């Protein structure tokens, strides 16, 4: 099995991060993977806003949590038992799970494939991160982190174009050392139809 396939099979979502910040050289490799992702029409319209400021990330994560209304988990329907999400645990107050690096992906408001362009860039970066020993977590509905006056102030400070919106966030950091690598859920093989 080649190294790319091994990385795809190994990657898991991480929601418990160590406080140690990732190295700049590692971050640059992850960002390069995002920049090289496919984009509709080759437009390369995604903007990657990298924030490693703990105070800003914590505040935006709390705003996002306050503006998120996930259907809460039940005993039989949940996101993760090993690393609970904000839908699993009402006590989690930061939707960014205290990740030391948060990349918000912005895309044009009126472009048909804005979400898809961000998703493929995120997948490239998640695979690159895993191959470099960095944990990652994809967080959808990115705009909810900016849905108050503080969030709007950050958008202005970051000089985000007004014709763009926050599609999603990608959380990056080292997994907590005491946590085991999350176990893969069994694959449902009846999802492949062959004719």
Please describe the topology of this protein.
Layout: H1 3-10, H2 24-35, E1 47-51, H3 54-66, E2 101-108, H4 114-131, E3 135-139, H5 149-157, E4 164-173
Antiparallel strand pairs: 1-2, 2-4, 3-4
Question: Explain this structure to me?
Answer:
The chain is of the alpha+beta class and about 200 residues long. It has a single domain, classed as NADH Oxidase. Helices cover about 30% and strands about 15% of the residues. The chain contains 5 helices and 4 strands. It has helices at about 5-10, 25-35, 55-65, 115-130, 150-155; strands at about 45-50, 100-110, 135-140, 165-175. The chain has a 4-stranded antiparallel β-sheet with strand order 1-2-4-3.
Query: What is the count of helical runs?
Result: 5
The ordered H/E elements are HHEHEHEHE
- pLDDT < 50 runs, ≥5 residues: none
On the 0 to 100 scale, the average pLDDT is: 94
Strand order of the largest sheet: 1-2-4-3
Number of strands: 4
Overall morphology: globular
Helix content bin: 25-40%
Can you name the CATH architecture? 3-Layer(aba) Sandwich
Please summarize the sheet with the most strands: 4 strands, antiparallel
Percent strand: 5-15%
Distance between the termini: 27 Å
